[in-house]
Structures are given as C-alpha cells and as structure tokens.
Amino acid sequence: MHFTELAEAGRRAPQRPASELAERDQVLAGIARQCLCDLSASSVGIYLHAETTSTLDATVMAVSPLGVASLESVAVDDDVYASAAAFQSGKTTTRHSIDIQGKHPEVAVSLAVSVSFPSTVSAVPLFCGPRRIGALTAFWPEPFRALPEEDETYLVRTADLLSRRLEALAAQGVSMAPAPLPLVVSAEPREDGTDASSLYAFAPRTAPLVYHLHKLALLLTSTNRTREATTLVLERIVPAFGARAISISLIESDRLRLVGASGCSREYLRSLDGLPLSRRAPETDAIAQRRRLVCPGTSEAMRGRLLQTPQTADTDEGDCTWVVLPLMTSHRVVGVCALGLGATSPDVTAAQAVLTAVSTLLGQTFERTQLYDAQYALAEKLQQALLPRMLPQPPGVLATSRYVPAMGGTDLGGDWYDLISLVDGSVAAVIGDVQGHNTTAAVVMGQLRSAVRAYATEGHDPVTVLSRTNRLLLDLETDLFATCCCVLLDPAGETMRLATAGNPPPSLRTADGHPLQAGVDIGVPLGVQENPDYRATDVPLAPGTLLALYTDGLAGSDDEFAHALGSTAGTVDGQLETLADRIIDTAMGLRSRGDDAALLLLRYEGPRDEARANVRQYAIQRRDLRGVHRTREQLRNWLAAWELSELTETAELLTSEVVTNALVHGDSDVNVHVRRYGTFLRVEVRDSDPRPAEPVTLPRAEDQAEGGRGLLIVSALASAWGNSPSGRGKTVWFELEVSVDDDLAPAHRSPWFDR
C-alpha cells in the first residue's frame, strides 16, 4: 500500500464521533438507547432496507454487555428473522434463535459462535409514508420469551414515532439508506456514571467496544491474507474507539513494515515504514517492553502524526492521546498498532481489558496471515517458475497466454502451456493439466513440459510427442495422469496438425469470427494406458484463423468455452490481448474457482515469409538502459523501410517510455515487437514482471505502479493501448493509426487486422 493511499484512507475512514452525528443518526441513536433501557433488552437495533443487496442492515445498535452478538444484516426475504418478517408483513413479529438453527442447519455452527446464547427477538416495521423502510428490533437473552402486551404496545408506539421523524427527514432529502457499519452506542449514563438500564445498572460503558471486537474476531476467522485482515481491522477499530488515527505495522526481519493506516500524516507513515527495531520510537519501545504505552499528543514523539484535513484543521493535537499496542501471540510480538484516541473516545483506563483483547486478537491474526502469505508467495513463485518466462512471437503467428490459479488455498496447480519456435520455421503450441493440486503435481508438470519441449524440438509430430510423453509419465511411476493437447503450425504451408490426450480440443474461429469444426479425435489421458492410439487431425490455415487452447479448469465443457469465445470474439475489434482478458472473465464466470486454468491464444497472420516482412523484433538485456537508445534507432530504421516515417517521432517517444518503464521496474530482459498492419502500427513490449502497468494522474516519487506518468503520455497519444499478463510477465502494447496506399498494405488482410 502506498503512503498516499494510507494517508488518503484517513479521509475515507468511518470516523463518527457523537458530536458529528448526522441528524438522522442522532434520532436513531436516541430512540434505540431509550428502548434499550425501557425494555430491559440486551440490545436494540434499527434496521434499514438496503435495496442494492436485498438485506436489512443495522444502522444503529444500542447494546449492553449481553447484546454484542446481535446480527448486523439479515436477508429481507427470509422470514425466520424477526426483522425480515416484520418488514414483509408490516406487523409485529417475534422469533427465537432456535428457529434460525432449525431452518438453516448449514449455518448452525457459525450462529452458535456469533450468537452464543439462546435469545428472543421481537421486531416492528418502520415506514416512510406508505413505504416500509426497515424495522425496529429488540433482543432479549431468553430462549422462549413471550412478548408482554405492554412491551408490544411500547414497540409499536416507538416505531410510529420513529417513522414520523424519518419521514420528515426524508422530505428534507435525508437518505434512508443504511450505513456501511452500524453506529454502536450504549445506554445513556446516569449522573453516577452507570448505565440507566436497570438490568445492567453497573455494567461498564465499554459494550460498544466489545461489540465491534466480537464482530471483528468473527470476520478475521475467515481471512487468510494480511491485506484483507488489515482492511477489516481498520473498518472496525476506528469506529469502535472513535479513533482519529491508526497505524498497523508488522515485524519483518529487524524492521517494521507498514501494512495499514488511517488518519495519519504522510510524514509519520514515512518514518514508520522500514523503521529499525533498534531505533527508539514509541512503536519499537512497545515491542521491546512487550507492554502497552500511552502517550499524550503533545509529546515530542507524537507531534505531526495526525493527517490535517479541512475537517480537522481547527483540532488541537493535544486533544489526541496515543495508545501503542504490541501485537502479541503466546510466544512473541509480531507487530504494533498505534491508536490516536480523540476527546470522545473511551477512557483508556476503563478500556484496558478491551485493549488487551485487541492486542492479542491482532497478534494471533497477523501471525496466521503472515504464515499464509509466505506459503502463498512460495507457491506462486514456484508455479510461475514452471511457466514460460516470455512467449516467442514467430513470424506469421501472434500469441498470448493467461494462467488463473485456483481461488483459495496455497495448493500448486498442474496446468501448463508452452509455445516453441522450431528450426524449420514451424511452431509447436502445447497446453496440459496434471492431476492434483500439490507439489507433486507441480513437479510432474515441470517434467512433462520439459519432455514435450524436447520431443517437439527434435522434430516429432504431435502424435509421437504425446506417445513418448505418455511413456515417460508411466516410467515416472507417480500414479498421476495428465491431459495434453499438442498443435504443430506450419505458417509456410498454411496447415496445422494437432492431437490431444484427454485435453479439450482447441476452439477454432475463422477470420470473420465463425466457428471452425475440426473433428478432433480425443485420446486417453497421459499415464493411463501403455500403448494408447493417439490420432492426428490436419486443419488448413487461412490468415486470421484464431486458435484457443485451454484446460478444463477454464470451462466445464467444450460448449461452454465455445460460447465464451463466441460471445467475446466479436466485441474486441481484433485485439488479441483484450480478447484473452474477456475470455477469462466470461469463462470463469461460468465456473467455480476450485481448479486452476490456462489459456493459450494464437492467431495465424499469414504465410511466414510475408508476415516476416511486416514484423520486427529487438531484445534488450536486463538493466541495459542504453538499450532504450538502440531501440529508438532500430524503430527509426524500420519505419523508414516501411515508408512510415511520419510516425517516427510519436512512435519513438511512446516506445522509449514503455521500454524504460519495463527496464526500470520490471528488472528483467525486455523484448520489443513491432508489427505493421494495413491501417495501424502495433508496438509490444514484453517483460517478466507480473505487476500490471498503471498510469497515475498525481506525481508520487514513491509510487510503485509501473508506468506512472509515462503511460499517461501513451494513453494520450496512442490510438489504442493496454497491458496484459503474458507468460510469467506482461505485455504493454500501443497502436498508432497509419494511412497507406492499398498496394503498400500487407497482402493478407482480414477483419482481425483492419479496424
């Protein structure tokens, strides 16, 4: 996360102190508090209808210590919930927690955790004129409580009063949409400092803190990534404490790494990120001493930490007290959290138990997510190492690839693809999938990919390649099977030969987008039989023919993938990179992400010799910044030879920007491909860095997004541009329109090329 993003987060954080409540929330909070006291309930919630999600979401919750487990959101059409039933029927409704477990046994365990004791819930509808907009709901910690007549009358009258107030506010243009998170309040205190509720007269006023902590703990149990956990912590901790600022840092080696912040100045975040543990600071002192530190905002160490915005310009930093919490596990400290508490925040002394719970909860969570992140990064690195670093771009064939890992978990996938330029000018395209999602499957995948590449390089046809690879897999005795599709393209002879072992056959499209039926004979998977009968299929190639090789993780059936390809091929105006992105988005929408998926997309652009006349390539070694100058010289010569000198100035500028970004940020070799088509010039820059290139509109020295202002120039001057993953890295491309005579245009032109 960038410093600017962290600083800007403070402007977006849900900071809602009582003094700044909107009029609607003041009305809701006052009524909820009064109901909590008068009904001796454990909690009272005011739910409003969220039309976009078809749910009733709590906008205000008045809670006691026994009411922290109240549900925040319920489906509007599920009448097992009292709030939903009252909203649907327009009548007072009572439900019991056991009803929910009976109707939804699949969530019984999670409900038992979130609502840890039996309860009774009664709700009455809320109206805005004739329209129902929500429900007023009361919770009691009793399993089968009958709603007394006086309590029902009280709820109905209170709901009627609240409805009239809300209707008046709506007439003034006040929104009736629920807030992203509920405003959580306790009962109004008496003069002696205790809650007014007779049932909990001596309970401490930390119930709202416990409420948010309880919800946060439940959310964090289903989160494995540090970034996601950090987002949840910021969303809950800031409103829970009424905090003006928060920063979260984790220990990496002997330094602190900032992972999230809200309401903090950029200067403070700069000083915190990368701070050595040996350097004195409140955060490092809390870690070293393994205890909570409380520092006034006026102290030298705390000055300048708050983000100054128009809303806080008149606020004195002395009104802020900083609490620095070491994030503890049972045996070590994993990080530190600094909370800037304002004047309306709970008293630190009264909240000691909650602060200790926060320290432990965050420590255990981030220890778990850091371990998962490390495992995921290792699995991802190994997976990427087994895929091609960069796809070749032989004359006559345009290629791109996509790999989508399975969603969730750190298991390695067995999908692979490859594109091999052979010595005779032909091209071998391969895609396959090894059974399983573990290290063994990944290792076998690497062995098969190497074997297929070796057999194809020796000049064997697809049938022989599959037969020999099958023999190898049997000899490895892994008890695994694999699917594989092998295609041999001959751009000179305009033919294609393919064979497949259990893998879906390629989906083919003509230049005008019509499906091409090849009648492929699908053989048995590799590793199943000792002498399988694989058969080859020959298909003639015409310029513009599209081949899509894919694994079964991308679509459930050939028909599903053909539909995904057909529905997108006519919408991308011939852009192969964009087409690959659309195929992935469309096909993955048809499937669950329980399996990884691979896509190898090829387009035949015409006979090799003719295509070679319109394609130029240049390779630059890693970190060779002088290669930028040489690339400009080569580009100038190529454009002159193609009689496109009028494009030289713009093409050189844009190519220089993209190549420089790739060398500086990508930290890999860079390949430049320039293609001349009938009506446009296309420049592609490929590297091995997987990070996407993104233009930024604000200059930031610390910005890590590749491209930055350079890509703004590309976006402004190019007729089209984009960036997409390719092999282990990515391709950044742009196009410039050209105007050439028909007799100078390439001989083979199709709707794929002329746009």
From TrEMBL:
Residue ranges of domain PPM-type phosphatase in the record: 397-604
Domain of life: Bacteria
InterPro entries registered for this protein in UniProt: Bact_Sigma-Reg, GAF-like_dom_sf, HATPase_C_sf, HATPase_dom, PPM-type-like_dom_sf, PPM-type_phosphatase-like_dom
Keywords of the record: Hydrolase
Cited Pfam families: HATPase_c_2 (PF13581), SpoIIE (PF07228)
GO MF term list: phosphatase activity
Disordered: annotated span: 1-20
Annotated protein name in UniProt: PPM-type phosphatase domain-containing protein
Gene source species: Streptomyces spiralis
